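Hi C.,

You asked whether I'd gotten around to modeling the 114-residue construct. I have! Everything is below, sequence then structure, no commentary in between.
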Amino acid sequence: QVQLVESGGGLVQPGGSLRLSCAASGSIFSRHTMGWYRQAPGNQRELVAHITTRGTMNYNDSVKGRFTIARDNAKNTVYLQMNSLKPEDTAVYYCNTVPVIPNWGKGTLVTVSS
């Protein structure tokens, strides 16, 4: 059974930065595109960014130019570097494959506020 464990969230002021990490158990990274998702209060879950097995990246327009996704298959870990954070980035952030598997992690909360 694959387990996904997100970390790195916290409270940051607008314009600040955070780096999120996602560690996975089981063998999923070698064959799957990985993504970061987020869900803000009152909003639907949305895909923020994803990265293929070869390292090709794609981003939601709302974060393009501010966020960077990366992966390390040897460590079964995917990262999300978030810069120039805005209050509207406040959400619980999750990692998963694209398309998703049903065993979501608990996520990590990012709060952007002055």
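If it helps when you're writing up: The beta strands are 4-7, 10-12, 18-24, 34-39, 46-51, 57-59, 67-72, 77-82, 91-97, 108-112.

Thanks,
B.
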